[in-house]
User: What shape does this take?
Amino acid sequence: MSKSRPWQIFALLSLLYVIAYFYRVSAAVIAPDLTADLSLSPAQLGNVSAALFYAFAIAQLPLGPLLDRFGPRRIVTLFGLATAGGALLFAAAGGYAEALWGRILIGAGTSCVLMGSLKAYTAWFPPGRFATLAGLQVAIGNAGNLLATAPLAYMAAGLGWRGVFGVMALLSTLAALAVLALVRDAPPGVSPQAGRPSLGSGWGELVRRPGFWSLALLAFFWYGTYMAVQGLWGGPYLVEVLGVDQARAGELLLFIPLGFIVGSPLAGRLSDRLGGSRQRVLLPGQLALLLLASLFLGPLAEIPRPLLPGVFFLFGLAVSTGPLLYAQVKEEFPPELSATAMTGVNFFVMLGAAVVQQGMGRMVAAEPQGGAEAQRHAFWLPVAGLAAAWIVGLSLSRWKKPTKMA
Assistant: This one.
């Protein structure tokens, strides 16, 4: 076997994750265009954005056992083609219903990219590199996050948002077919399906562990807080509260994925090198995220404008500690249940993004005066939730390497 083969697989799956991440966060920049073109209310806009995350979350329930049983190659290919179909439906949407179903199909389709990749890495790379690889892939994937900020605003101005999603549907199709042709579940001579677990056995192990629920709660509000800013409400907040135009809002949001890209491999590498509990890096990072998210309750408007890019960069840097959740939960389960354990956490990651975005939309719509005050009040949801999750995580942390299941 070529020594470069694992890294070729890593490169292809990382490219697919770039595409998936673009879909995930693109609504924030094109939100004004969607609202105008499809005549969406604030609540409907929140529903359209959240639909991707609900579909993504629900897909995690069967996804982990499917990956453990059938391997990542076939599952990632199948789901990638579904992503392309959702992008085409979204691009052709004539109203709220079509846009909603397009986002649902995109969410279900992209649900297996990171989890399928991490499942493949358990077979192709040594365990001591796992958190580093996960952080590196998330960093690369955030190039899609970059594309969904200022570059998306410029592309949408030229092609229209429909044209952009038509191009993305073609890219999704080509990437899925490349996975089918080039990726293998495990190196030659290595069984990728040791034990062939039943589709429900892993979930029974998950729900009986208190530590899993602590990680699940933190995952819910970590990603919910991140997507509240990057995925949807950051753009409207900057326009309504800070009074910037749409292009400038996209430029400021660009600094969040930059911080994420810098921080993810560093957090993963630091976690691997420390050799102790992942929470030695995870919990301080989430505390920093909580403090930075609190700025959206009002203080952000008082910060001098030249310092705002730095604030958004630090926000992304703090967010980048979140992927350590996957390494933390993976270490508590044997290899044949690794995908089920990681998708269990990922279920709450995406559920948090959906609930927080949709909940904030309803909070904005519920305030008759609307505008800047409504935007500020809505951010109490992610901030209060992350604070509670961090306290629970701190109280249950033992600050030591978790013991694997016998």
Residues 399-406 have pLDDT under 50 and may be disordered. The two ends are 32 Å apart (CA to CA). The chain is about 75% helix and 0% strand. The first helix runs from residue 5 to 25.
